[in-house]
Amino acid sequence: MKKNNIILIGFMGVGKGTVARALVNKSGMMAIDTDDIIESMENRKIKKIFELEGEPYFRNLEKKTAKWLAKNVKGTIISTGGGFYKQEKLNEIGKVVYLKSSFQGILDRIHSAPNAANKLKKRPLLQNMEAASKLFDERAPQYEAVADIIVDVEKKDINLIVEEILGQV
Ligand code: S3P
């Protein structure tokens, strides 16, 4: 069955939520976010889940979310947490779009946001920049490998990003 979902993957802070909202405006589709689903399921924030239960517990919730999406969601823009791309059979959920940027591009984007401190604080895996940079290097080729479509988003106008995505899905 063709599900017509668009799944946005990419590193923390690359702008998956921002791109999802812009896609909503342009396409008339609705959007959901895997971190939001997990937070509602647990009635607590990602930061708390990591603190109190640890990362493996969180990854298990991502797995549960992936199964639910594959079974129940159609015609939707799905933004994901930065580690969600590891879920098996991602392309059974929809067209996988990798939002690509350099690590420095991501840091610049976060630091230029008005709520930069909050953006950093709420992300457990962005607390240590050396570790985050290593994680980025490890994941970058993996994002590319699972993507159906790769869109370079670094320093690019949001309207252009949206056009490129909608032109390819
Ligand atoms: C994670 C990214 C976060 C969130 C969690 C783990 C990751 O989402 O799912 O903190 O492993 O990269 P964002 O990509 O929206 O920051």
TrEMBL record:
Binding site for ATP: 13-18, 123
Function, as annotated: Catalyzes the specific phosphorylation of the 3-hydroxyl group of shikimic acid using ATP as a cosubstrate.
Subcellular localization, as worded in the UniProt entry: Cytoplasm
Gene Ontology cellular component list: cytosol
InterPro entries: P-loop_NTPase, Shikimate/glucono_kinase, Shikimate_kinase/TSH1
Catalytic activity reported: shikimate + ATP = 3-phosphoshikimate + ADP + H(+)
Cofactor(s) the record lists: Mg(2+)
Subunit description: Monomer.
Main location: cytoplasm
Source superkingdom: Bacteria
Protein name: Shikimate kinase
Gene Ontology biological-process annotations: amino acid biosynthetic process; aromatic amino acid family biosynthetic process; chorismate biosynthetic process
Molecular functions per Gene Ontology: ATP binding; magnesium ion binding; shikimate kinase activity
Lineage: Bacteria, Pseudomonadati, Campylobacterota, Epsilonproteobacteria, Campylobacterales
Stored Gene3D superfamilies: P-loop containing nucleotide triphosphate hydrolases
Pathway participation: Metabolic intermediate biosynthesis; chorismate biosynthesis; chorismate from D-erythrose 4-phosphate and phosphoenolpyruvate: step 5/7
Family membership: Belongs to the shikimate kinase family.
EC number: 2.7.1.71
Bound cofactor: record note: Binds 1 Mg(2+) ion per subunit.
